Amino acid sequence: MGAAQQKPKSDETSIDALINLSDKLKANKAKNMSLTDVIGVAELLTSSLQPLLRQIDSTIHSELRGILLRIEGLRKEIVKVRADDISNNKIPEMGKELSAIVESTEGATNSIMEAAETVLEIETDNFEDYKQAVSDQMMTIFEACSFQDLTGQRVTKIVQTVEIIEERINLLCEMLDMGDENLPEEELNQKQKRNKELLLNGPANEGEGVDQSAIDKLF
Amino acid sequence: MALDVTMPVLVVDDYATMIRIIRNLLKQIGFTNVDDASDGKQALERIEKKQYGLIISDWNMEPMTGYELLKQVRAASETARTPFIMVTAESKTENVIAAKKAGVNNYIVKPFNAQTLKGKIDAVFGE
Q1: Domain boundaries of chain A, sorted by first residue
Q2: ipTM
């Protein structure tokens, strides 16, 4: 079969040759095929697949190049998130501020309570002495209340830091085209599981939770 | 159960400030025999050594919460009937219901005042 031995000149000619060969084989069903015919068929089939393989190759190449360019772009953009700055500076700073708030409120509360306890324990029959002692303790209370100014400033710093972190996370989400859809269910860590089991919800905000009168009705 | 201001009272809270506030409020009411513990575990150690007439406990503490303490107190025959008041910032209905089911005698939401504390203690002792 001479047609089977022809070398295809292009993608179209190899397909044409394959169709011709197929027609001839159909027309000569009764005759046995020679080894030359089989090799010819294999050659034609191989060459006919070339265009498809070339197309796949070029598609993959172009897609991989696109992915590479996207990764390079993302790497440049992710630098703007400054993750190191968040973990090395922002979060520890917030921790320090919160600790300072706890310390100052605790200190102030203790000073106020000490003053109140001192007033409760004043033992004198002299009104002027009593008045002076109460007045001294009231001044201590006023002084202790100055903690509110400092803690207010610290809270403002924390809020600003949280806003910076929020901006950067939003930037990252935008870069990665991440939306709220298809979010996996949040996996609870050990601490969260314990809080859930033991109903550790923490103080409720205004308007949330039940008030004392509602609780009293349950008892 | 009659209210006896000389009976031992155990105050359980992980905040020293809150213990101090409750101690002062109890003192105003007339209670003088007041011990304290910083969590449920420490409270159980105190309860093993001394019989208390009233337990006032916070809910949210580490390592043992007030809710766990309440359940353990109710599970032990010696303390099954000891008056137990929960004083907590946990004000969700589910918390109140869970505490009631576990056998709490009364429930106070923080912040509270001396009048509320006295009212609940009186209610527990049927005064």
Answers
A1: 2-76, 82-179
A2: 0.84
